[in-house]
Amino acid sequence: MQAASESQPSGPKPQPTGEVLIEAKGLCKSFGPVVAVDQVSFQVRRGELVGFLGPNGAGKSTTMRMLTGYLNPDGGEATLGGIPASKVEARRILGYLPEHTPLHREMRVDRFLGLVATLRGMRGAPRKDAMARVLDSCDLDGYETRRIHTLSKGYRQRVGLAQALISDPDVLVLDEPTSGLDPREIVRVRDLVARLARDKTVLVSTHVLPEVEDVCQRVLIIAGGRLVADGMPEDLAGSVGKRLVVEVNGAGNSARLTETLLALDGVEEVAQVDPLRGGELRLEVRVCDPLLVLEPLRAVLLQTGATLLELRHELPTLEQVFMEHTAGVRETQA
Q: Which residues contact 219 (CB under 8 A, 6 or more apart)?
């Protein structure tokens, strides 16, 4: 298999019909001798909720900072609604929640949101209406007069989302919105993001892979500063191959059985893993088509006199997809 840093994004790309609101065109960024982002290109259209994944040091946060105009690229271009991200006009359609939300923690929730609304150019009734809208949508009603530093991490994160939403932007860029939250708060924030995506364009970075599988229509994976995968989760899962899980007793020489299975047409890889059902041997068999391999595999097991404890088809998880595309890739420390 090619190293992920040399791979091309895999999986059939979805074809959404909305206008392009986020676009990266050959983005590059270096910090001294370290190349943090290297020729990253993708589009996100209106109404899409896209997960942006990558290991630590992959260049994910650097890419998001260029998309939001907080960093200028060394090469390429980032645009929001067709406008260069560095322009003030682009910021007007953007709501951004950085990983470490810059909140004025000594302020009351309502006064902080009022300040953000004022900085966004709102006055009078529009300002009041915007504050009421985000307090409601972020489930902050009843917390308006609380000082931010007295809130739990989850509620501070809601305040961060509220400030990103105050101008009712078309584009939301969320960097690790559930980082450090307890499971209950993760569910609440995830559901809120899913609701917001119904009429906005959302790009969300996260390490919580089940969350991506649950709510994201599309996944981008970056590794070593390069985009290595782009597609719907189910398509990306199909791109890394299908697996048959086999657990047996009495199979004899495990190395010989592995060699025999590898010789079967359609078998691409055989890996030995820890047994789960009390058997002596458990194998994960990567195949191109489970239906073509099933009967020959059963015949091999019958010849060995093995007792079959488990034989099932397992679809790759997003975690396995992630590991496949990021294995062995260097960190950029960006």
A: 50, 51, 53, 212, 229, 230, 231, 232, 233, 236, 318, 321
Pairing of strands 201-205, 49-53: parallel
Angle, nearest 10°, between helix axes 183-196 and 124-137? 130
Element (H, E) at 200: none
Contact between 307 and 259 under an 8 Å Cβ cutoff? The reply is no
- Strand order across the 75-80 sheet: 34-45, 20-31, 75-80, 83-84
Residue 46 carries which side chain, given as an amino acid letter?
A: R
Q: Where are the domains of the chain?
A: 4-237, 241-315
Query: Which of 3.40.50.2300, 3.30.70.100, 1.10.10.60, 3.40.630.30 would CATH assign to domain 241-315?
Result: 3.30.70.100
- In tens, the pLDDT along 250-298 reads 777 788 888 888 889 888 888 888 877 777 888 888 887 888 888 888 8
